[in-house]
Specification:
Distance between the termini: 80 Å
Helix content: over 70%
Number of helices: 5
Radius of gyration: 22 Å
Largest sheet: none
Shape: globular
Order of helices and strands: HHHHH
Amino acid sequence: MSTVTSSRLARLGELMLPGAGIGAAAGVMAGLMTLGAGLGTGLAAVNALALGIPMALFGGVYTLLCARGILLVGVFAPAALYWLIAFPVSRIVQEASAAVYLTGAPGLSDDLWAFAAYNALLAPGLAFGFVWSHERFVPPWLMRIRDHNPLAAGLAQAYLVYAARAYEQKQRKDAQRAARKQQRLAGASD
């Protein structure tokens, strides 16, 4: 592999790292919930890895898609659609892995479509939490790596524009609220 290719891959990996970390946190939570339910450390490890690895991959790809401008920063609907596919796929991997651990043979739910549909219903909630986490954890990382990573610089700029737009909108709402309050006070004193 050439140096140019390896440095490009390193920059992509560096960019994808925080999104992957957020995705992997879902696997950690699955493992902790398995332990909390008293189902044993082996199954907890299987659940943590079997959910954490695909979620980390999908989380990193989400960050990459944002950096490429395919998914927009601060827009929920495209993120929800992305996780509508990504979360059920991750859960199917987790379910199949747990079946192998528990029975020694691959197996999935008898009604795979219902299982996938149920997890698709949960996906918008996951997407909301993922986007919220992404908006808080990714920008500081991007600021650290933007000087040597052009994709990170572009995504950092997109987050700065988004933050400025959100701040301006908040300022307008605060000004409107203050004006309405002032009108009510002026009307009450008349």
